[in-house]
Amino acid sequence: MTRILKARNRWSRRELMAFLGSLALLYPICRFASFRVPRKPVPVNISKPVLTNGFLVSSDFVLFDRDGKTWALSRKCTHLGCKLTYHEDNDIFECPCHQSQFNAETGEAIRGPAVKPLVFYPVEKRESDPFYVVIT
Ligand code: FES
Q1: Closest ligand 1 atom to the C-alpha of 114?
Q2: In terms of residue numbers, what domain contains 23?
Q3: In terms of domains, do 29 and 69 share one?
Q4: Which of 75, 76, 97, 101 to mutate to test the pocket of ligand 1 (most atoms within 8 A of CB)?
Q5: Are 118 and 70 in a shared domain?
Q6: Residue 61 and residue 104 in one domain
Q7: For the chain, what is the domain count?
Q8: To test the ligand 1 pocket, which listed residue (75, 82, 83) has its Cβ within 8 A of the most ligand atoms?
């Protein structure tokens, strides 16, 4: 009797092949479902020649032009994606969702729960309109 029960607990070769075959089919389906097409870079033109107080807040980024340096930081929190607020007095970004803070010059997370730094966008500074082109 125990011999019969043991034999039933094993998989037959056919069952094993069917299981492996279904895994082989599921893998590419799962890969396809998780695949995301990378977003094309979008240039954003800024027509202001001089930024007020050395920065400009846009809906997706904050553009800085200070001390001969120009840079743009994303306003998307690296924790769960909330929109960050820039605080000029402390020169930091703060997240309204879980209060992460980021350094406005380096983009580094200075208070959690976020640990990844903010995304820098390439900025092209020009002599004529548009005076700044930010590639988001
Ligand atoms: S989403 Fe910004 S800290 Fe959580």
Answers
A1: 3
A2: 2-34
A3: no
A4: 97
A5: yes
A6: yes
A7: 2
A8: 82
Question: pLDDT for 36-74, tens place per residue?
Answer: 888 888 888 888 876 777 888 999 999 998 888 899 999
Q: Residue 7 has what pLDDT?
A: 55
What is the C-alpha to C-alpha distance for residues 10 and 16, in angstroms, rounded to an integer? 10
Position 108, amino acid: E
Cα–Cα distance measured from residue 8 to residue 65, given in angstroms and rounded to the nearest whole number: 73
Say yes or no: CB of residue 42 within 6 Å of ligand 1: no
Ligand 1 atom at minimal distance to the Cα of residue 95: 2
Task: Respond yes or no on whether the N-terminal peptide bond of residue 130 is cis (omega within 30° of 0).
Answer: yes
22-43 burial, b if ≥16 CB within 10 A, otherwise e? eeeeeeeeeeeeeeeeeeeeee
- Could you tell me if 74 and 94 lie in one domain? yes
**Residue 79 Cβ < 6 Å to ligand 1:** yes
What's 104's domain CATH number? Answer: 2.102.10.10
What mean pLDDT value characterizes the chain? 87
pLDDT-above-70 percentage for the chain:
93
Q: Among 74, 75, 76, 77, name the best residue to mutate to test ligand 1's pocket (greatest count of ligand atoms within 8 A of Cβ).
A: 77
* Confidence (pTM): 0.70
